[in-house]
Write a structure and sequence with these properties.
With 185 residues, this protein is mainly α. 73% of the residues lie in helices and 2% in strands.
Length: 185
């Protein structure tokens, strides 16, 4: 059992690194860039599940909070978390929990993975927009347009990619015994 926990902890750490790499894939926008972070977070939860996916996301956020340049634009530090884009970073944690709980409850099928990723996208966008409203002193409409509307089309695409490929990779990794899930302990 401890061997499996160690193996999965290492896999979670690898996914934290994958999130950091995807964070560097950016499309600049005025306040908040479009990044690969949400895609990587969706993949992490879809593949690793609630427990280890949330560990991966938490580790990623912690690494950035202590100053490692893992956030978009090779940025890091607690100042990024309390800055304009911090709501999205905090949203990743809530996204991980929401997606993980959904997948644990309904299963890791392609359909449920897609639904979970869409739910995760909505969670992150709402938290990010609320944070923008408070941090940037925007009106509700400005926060919604700036923090949600601009990201929905790309967010849907990322959710579809993460749900589809994540569920395929999860199945293959389990079959190859490279991913240990609770039922196989």
């Amino acid at each position: 059992m401890q061997h499996h926990q160690l193996k999965m902890s290492i896999v979670a750490a690898l996914f934290a690194a994958i999130i950091a790499i995807f964070a560097q894939l950016t499309i600049p926008l005025p306040l908040v860039p479009i990044t690969g972070q949400t895609l990587a977070v969706g993949l992490a939860i879809t593949i690793l599940g609630l427990q280890y996916g949330t560990i991966a996301v938490t580790l990623y956020i912690a690494l950035g909070a202590i100053g490692l340049p893992v956030f978009s634009g090779m940025s890091g530090g607690f100042g990024v978390i309390i800055g304009p884009t911090g709501g999205y970073i905090i949203g990743f944690f809530v996204q991980a929990l929401g997606m993980g709980l959904y997948l644990e409850r309904f299963g890791y099928t392609k359909t449920h993975a897609l639904v979970a990723n869409l739910i995760g996208m909505i969670i992150t966008l709402i938290i990010g927009a609320l944070w923008l409203k408070l941090f940037m002193h925007l009106s509700w409409m400005q926060a919604f347009v700036t923090g949600v509307v601009a990201f929905v089309p790309v967010g849907i695409l990322k959710a579809v990619i993460a749900g589809w490929f994540g569920s395929i990779l999860r199945e293959r990794l389990i079959k190859a015994r490279l991913l240990i899930v609770k039922s196989s302990y």
